Amino acid sequence: MNYIVFDLEWNQNPDGRRHPDSRLPFEIIEIGAVKLNEKREIVDTFQCLIKPKVYHWIHDSIHEVIHVDYHELEKGIPFPRAIRRFLEWCGEEYRFFTWGDQDVMELQRNMKYYNLLKLMPGPVHYYDVQKLFSIKFEDGISRRSLEYATDYLQLPKNRDFHRALADASYTARILLEIDEACMIRHPSLDVYQNPKSRDSEIYISYTDHDKFVSREFVSKERLMKDRTMVSTMCPICRCPAKRKIRWFSTNNSKVYYSLALCHEHGPVAGKIRIRKTDEGKYFGVKTLRAEDTEAADEIREKHESLRRRKMLRSQEKI
Questions:
Q1: Domains of the chain
Q2: Taking the model in full, what pTM does it have?
Q3: Which of 46, 95, 108, 263 has the fewest CB atoms in 10 Å of its CB?
Q4: How confident is the model over 224-234, as pLDDT tens digits?
């Protein structure tokens, strides 16, 4: 099994929000990667500039950060050839590592644009080194920049940041500071290639929580009426937990919370994130955590705050 630590640089519409291609808001212009073996030893690197097809000039803010101009990119290779070369370099068995959760999704979005998603069947299991850094060295919630983490661990900075291979190299060095046990306990799942039917829905049991990814629905309302989506089962004993606070949303209808009670393992904190597909449909990602009193207290606080706001609004109407 190869560990592939990769980073992407991408461009966007140089005119800002005017006339963007909705199918490809971010066009990948560089892939950089570091390959580690199962002993977590660095054995190879990969770097490739990609010739743009959609956005033919570099957005000003991106040019300031990555210092690549259009003439340099014109010497690159087309994305279809680049992605095939990259995946061949990865080897037969590999697992992705990235800094943050966006690169895996954007890689698939670019592949979809060129009808190449069959080369990377989803959902994609990977490891988010940014998240692992937070879990290992901080509070597990904060998300730091790559340069911050590099400085925190006092790693040498011998390359400029914001180039794909350089950032992949820094990410690989940070990964080596995180023990494998921590890494294995906290995998990530990208659901850009979401389930389309009931049979393809995803159930995953981790060491401390369960995750469920639903099929597609035509509306958020139908999604939140699905019995499987709104069920609350204890992740430890698999018994139905009694609902104490029904599913509710605070400031928007993209995230819902609930609180249930397992007679044996205590509070079960629930969270549903609603995602919208490129085709305008909806699916949900549900997380259930047991024996997490801190999460349970946060949900109670959110629910009480929502109740107070509703009460104030009703009083203002009188």
A1: 2-185 (3.30.420.10), 194-317 (3.30.530)
A2: 0.87
A3: 263
A4: 999 999 999 99
